[in-house]
Amino acid sequence: MKRRIAMWSVVGFLASGCWVIVALMNPIALANPAARTLAVFIQPIALVSFRFHVPMHFLEVMIANAATYGLIGLMVETLRRQLHHAR
User: Fold this and answer.
1) Is 19 in a helix, a strand, or coil?
2) What's the chain's average pLDDT?
3) What is the pTM of this model?
4) Using an 8 Å Cβ cutoff, are 64 and 47 in contact?
């Protein structure tokens, strides 16, 4: 179970890293409403940053996104384990 939660965190970190690359290569791309919506959907911490106008460094966003995905993974894996034992 620990490995699965760690994988969730790594996926969150890598997903956020891809958005960092997009933002650095083409900063105007995030001005597109569709891209911004996708970024907020993939990076929940970005919603907080956009909504409350909190400036965050790219690395902070990546770490926060990894932690968020880790928490989501913990919830999913706990539910999966409970449902598996219920059978």
Assistant:
1) helix
2) 88
3) 0.83
4) no
